[in-house]
Amino acid sequence: MEPGNVNDVLLSCLEKNVTKPASATAEPSLSSRSSDPGNLAQRLGDAFLAVRNETERRAAPLSPEDQQIQSMPDASPTKWHRAHTTWFWEQFLLGEHAVGYRPFHPDFAFLFNSYYVSAGPRHARNHRGDITRPSADEVGAYRRYVDAAVVKFFREASADKLRALAPLVEVGLNHEQQHQELMFTDILHAFAQNPIYPSYDPDWRFPAATRSGDDWLTLNEGIHTVGHVDDGFHFDNEKPAHRALVGPVKIARNLVTNAEWLDFMQDGGYRTATLWLMDGFAAASKEDWQAPGYWREVDGAWQVMTLAGLKPVDPDAPVCHVSYYEADAFARWSGKHLPTEMEWEVAARAGQLNDAFGIVWQWTRSSYSPYPGYRAVEGALGEYNGKFMVNQLVLRGSSLATPQGHSRITYRNFFYPHHRWQFSGVRLAYYD
Ligand SMILES: [Fe+2]
């Protein structure tokens, strides 16, 4: 494909999205800041290497055995994330636009294509952990080979070509950042299955929550513009911006805490069917949910598996690793509900939400659907977002695992309602 305008091309991945908290300050678009081709080549190269190095920084504490494991079908091995993000550059940038480029290995497109039907056949998602070869070292060599080719391409491409391809490069960078978050969520799930509870980083700490101001923020009835409006980077699912009727509604300024969740548990929340959606109670019963994901009761005290290993549950910390089904049941138990994504966005634009970003993604009650007028881009990258717009729920904000510079007020994350291995939490709302 030949990318067009940045607003037309940019795309988000189901296989989305650690240790720096993210802010909502998105980076300016690489393609919109300068018309100087030398400067653009330099900026593309710098941005590319910064993101590529962050992936390797996150993988560095993990042994080849750690990088091999796939602890459930929804989670992918670290080694696969490192290779798949590399394939993305090879497939969509080098293979299409670098004259004379030779792929690193003829089988890697089959092994490391995720879900792009248009890009050809691919290995089964739930068997990624079965692939012991290439080794983690060979994947490292693959990454270095592609890195060198991309940097060479930036150096040698014409100014017109670079300008035309800058939006595609931004998609590649943001795609890799989404996988950086998944590297943390997936290895935490794997380590949580291990009875000796390994730590990714013994010095890691759960981010401190903010509590200030009134507990409830009032949004009066009004018509608001929601969705992405400017030329900064965004995925296609954030557009078109449009007007929406919001309020009157009250939204919690703070995230739901572990202490509040313990009250729900002690009140029999997990056993009271009338609090739950039918599918939710079926999932909770089948999976024997009695507490948020990764909680373990040890000698009568609750502990939680974290990136630093097993730690005591901090009552003041935001609850994390809860599914939509649990969030919805908790809201019903509280006499409240979950906000819609539009209510969340309007409140976040007003700057009134504590910890909107950087700790836990917040479930909304909004189905992941196209905005009015949404059309997926043509070509393989049109598969990035549009084909997932059914049966999933939108989460807003960002998490402790989201890379720096990857968060936006209009960002729409999405997962199935039973998923709880992401860093997902709860913010409540209610109508008077
Ligand atoms: Fe991907």
3D architecture notes:
The structure is a single chain. By secondary structure, the chain is an alpha+beta fold. The protein has two domains: 8-192, Four Helix Bundle (Hemerythrin (Met), subunit A); 216-430, paralog of FGE (formylglycine-generating enzyme), CATH 3.90.1580. Helices cover 35% and strands 12% of the residues. The protein has eleven helices and twelve strands. It has helices spanning 6-9, 37-59, 64-68, 78-97, 108-112, 136-156, 159-192, 258-266, 278-287, 324-333, 341-349, and strands at 216-219, 222-226, 242-246, 249-252, 295-298, 301-306, 309-312, 361-367, 393-396, 413-415, 424-425, 429-430. A four-stranded mixed sheet has the order 10-9-8-11. It has a three-stranded antiparallel sheet with strand order 1-4-12, with helices on one face. α4 (78-97) packs parallel to α6. The longest helix has 34 residues, at 159-192. The radius of gyration is 22 Å and the shape is globular. Mean pLDDT is 92; it is low at 1-23. The protein binds fe (ii) ion (FE2). Fe (ii) ion binds next to α7.
Q: How would you summarize this macromolecular structure in one to three sentences?
A:
Residues 214-353 form the Sulfatase-modifying factor enzyme-like domain. The chain is of the alpha+beta class. The chain contains 11 helices and 12 strands.
